[in-house]
């Protein structure tokens, strides 16, 4: 089989012609647009401050948190925290709403669910050891 024929047979991530479960990163190659979009999300997650912010937002009881509750947890200025939050918003991980003088943030679970689905390894048949 030629290289060209082999490339035509590859399933692009997110395009499952069989109607089955969506392919994951480990079962099909990404197309260029998908790679660009995922890279934005991973880049946003590639900073310890942003990871902590996302964790604080996601784990907040009630599903949302005021920026006034986020800022004191860091030894950073409020504009720096706002910049990090802006990057998380641009990556589609969180959203926000202004209420008076404060801004409230919440997780966008569809983005984290999509990441989880893409990174999940395909299921393997259970072995006798695993089931006992």
Notes on the structure:
The protein is mainly alpha-helical. Helix content is 48%, strand content 11%. It is built from seven helices and three strands, in the order H-H-H-E-H-H-E-E-H-H. It has a three-stranded antiparallel β-sheet. A hairpin with a 2-residue loop joins strand 2 and strand 3 (102-107). Helix 2 (32-45) runs antiparallel to helix 5 and helix 3 packs across helix 5 (78-90). The radius of gyration is 20 Å and the shape is elongated. The protein starts with a helix and ends with a helix.
Summary keywords:
mainly alpha; about 130 residues; 3-stranded antiparallel sheet
What is the secondary structure topology, with strand pairs?
Layout: H1 3-9, H2 32-45, H3 48-58, E1 64-66, H4 67-70, H5 78-90, E2 94-99, E3 102-107, H6 109-119, H7 128-131
Antiparallel strand pairs: 1-3, 2-3
**Residue share in helices?**
40-55%
Low-confidence sequence ranges: 1-20
What gap, in angstroms, lies between the N and C termini? 43 Å
Number of strands: 3
Overall geometric form = elongated
What sequence of helices (H) and strands (E) makes up the elements? HHHEHHEEHH
Q: Short description, anyone?
A:
Helices cover 48% and strands 11% of the residues.
């Amino acid at each position: 089989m030629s290289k060209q024929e082999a490339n035509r047979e590859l399933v692009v991530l997110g395009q499952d012609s069989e109607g089955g479960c969506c392919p994951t990163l480990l079962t099909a190659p990404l197309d260029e647009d998908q790679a660009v979009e995922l890279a934005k999300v991973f880049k946003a997650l590639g900073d310890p401050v942003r990871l902590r912010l996302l964790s604080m937002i996601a784990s907040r009881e009630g599903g949302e948190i005021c920026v006034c509750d986020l800022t004191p947890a860091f030894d950073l200025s409020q504009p720096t925290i706002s910049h990090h939050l802006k990057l998380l918003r641009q990556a589609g991980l969180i959203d926000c709403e202004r209420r008076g003088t404060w801004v409230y943030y919440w997780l966008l679970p569809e983005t984290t669910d999509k990441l989880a689905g893409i990174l999940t390894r395909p299921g393997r048949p259970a072995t006798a050891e695993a089931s006992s």
